[in-house]
Amino acid sequence: MTYDVHAHCIPTDLIDLLRSDGSQFGIEVVEDDRGVSVLLAGGGRLGPLRGILGDVDARLRAMDASGVDVQLISSWVDLTAYALDPGPGAAYSRRFNRILTDETARRPGRFLALGTVPLQDPRAAAEELRFAVEDLGMVGVEIATTVDGTALDQADLEPFWETAAALRCLVLIHPCDPLPGADLGRNFLDNMVGRPAESTVAIGHLIFGGILERHPDLVVCVVHGGGFVPFQLGRMQRGFDAVPHMSAQNISTPPTELARRLYYDTVLHDSRALAFLVNLVGADRVVMGTDYPFEMGDPDPVATVRSIPDLSDEDRHLILEGNVERILGNLTTDHRAI
Question: Of 35, 113, 120, 139, which one has the greatest count of Cβ atoms within 10 A?
Answer without folding.
Answer: 113
